[in-house]
Amino acid sequence: MNKKWWHDKAAYQIYPKSFLDTNGDGIGDLKGIISKLDYLKDLGIDIIWLSPIYQSPFVDQGYDISDYYKIDEKFGTMDDFDTLLDEAKKRDMHIVMDLVINHCSDKHEWFQKALQDPEGEYGDYFYFRKGKNGNPPSNYRAYFGGSAWEKVEGTDYYYLHMFAKQQPDLNWNNPKVLKELYTMINWWLNKGVSGFRIDAIINIKKDPEFKSFEPDGPDGLTSVCRMVDSVDGVGELLEDLKKNTFEKYDAFTVAEVFNMKKDELIEFVGENGHFSTMFDFSTHQLSFGEHGWYDSKPIQFEDFRRVIFHSQTECLDIGFLANIIENHDEPRGVNRYLPKHARNEAGFKMLGTVSVLLRGLPFLYQGQEIGMQNCRMNSIDEYDDINTKGEYKMALEAGLSDREALEACYENSRDNARTPMQWDDSANAGFSSGTPWLKVNPNYKDINVKEQSGRPDSVLNYYKKLLALRKNDSYREVLTYGACIPMYLDEDNIFAYAREKDNHKVIVLANFSDKPRVLNGDFANRPILLNNMENITLSPSSVTLMPCQAVVFGEI
Ligand code: GLC
Description:
By secondary structure, this protein is α/β, with parallel strands linked by helices. It is about 30% helix and about 15% strand. It contains 18 helices and 23 strands. β16 (about 485) and β17 (about 495-500) form a beta hairpin. α13 runs parallel beside α17 and α14 (about 385-395) runs antiparallel to α15. It is globular. The chain starts with 10 loop residues before the first strand and ends with a strand. Bound molecules: alpha-D-glucopyranose (GLC). The site of alpha-D-glucopyranose has 9 residues, from loops.
């Protein structure tokens, strides 16, 4: 495998709206991010992914872009952004932007012009189709619920939106659209961004006939991803995109890809793949309900372990995955993946250990490093997220009570990860001197950066050690390139693996059960590189792990 500049890096996702507000408007900003670069450097971060900061009406929190060349004034100015690039560079850090190009905002100039004349030049930037017998062109359900077609008042036309109706899909069959997008991407790369996190990209290939499918729900609709599954050829679009943009700059790209077709991994993230890497969503997908959040299932440890090892093995000779426990679209990992008895600091460190030391790029999400948790909202009005409101509605329509529907939101809502970053125990967790745009998790007095910075055994200080271990001169090579070999698969509730390369070996052991567990093996002579507890019980032929204990052993 040819080495690439990003292989041994650690990344961190910032959700700018909730990171740090310096002007008291209740919304995080670029100046806030700049002021925390040293914090991130000290944590061990090299690459920062910013969720969208472009001009946007914020119907879907910036994933609806109305001008790709402007910074939204909520976040600051282009000068602030340039300062961020400079300051990051000084610290040898990389800024990665979010690239949302499956769709734009309905307020984008292209769409405004298209609405005036769906049959004209800009109409062809989107998908306008005539309705059938007074109905939409097909029976697709948008990802956020409801029909994926919206009628254009006063015409026979509907336009396609796979997400919210304010997010019209761009027509990737139109060379003019591609030219506009490539020019824009290269403009940002010329400015000095190191790459992109690429949003919802699998959706760009459509079947222009937009055939209906068998309904899959009581609403008579079928998920729009049925259409995505039914078409081939996304690879050609992705290759063209790469060749005209990223490749020319040796840029880093990490793709958000669901529903990739079988056997396409090599084309996506192989040596000459469309992207540098893509997120491993296999654990996230375990919780998908058949119809929505209201019938999603709690994740079982056995499944959690199985799917991670499957991804690790599948990718081994192909490329790198990006490993996460949470992001801005998911509930907090500690609530989702840890059994109840493990929802404490030892458990948070244990989950961090097994995730960060996997083969692939570790991506931390803001607040993960201090063990931020899901936030209970008292009513649906306390939620902001468009997807949460859609799922809540579907839950009520399926017959759940308000309390039950809120519980489904508590377990699954994207707002769980979007509550403001908890910096200290002052008002609003030190996030803002104004009124935060979204509720602050009331647990901020106990869980915050300030308290954890000053305490050697905190989750934060443990994450620093984890990331430092990946960069330690003696272990960098094996922890970057070494295979991930599952161990103790017969032991339930034990997450264990070795990272191996040539004659080098690091062993990671974690006990997810609520009982002490004895694992046979010769550990006594190995150096202990990390231990999330003070002690460890070793004998010449075994190790005993306490509940929630995670230990990393080095070379003999
Ligand atoms: C991606 C983003 C998500 C957004 C959606 C539509 O899944 O991560 O936040 O709502 O795309 O852009």
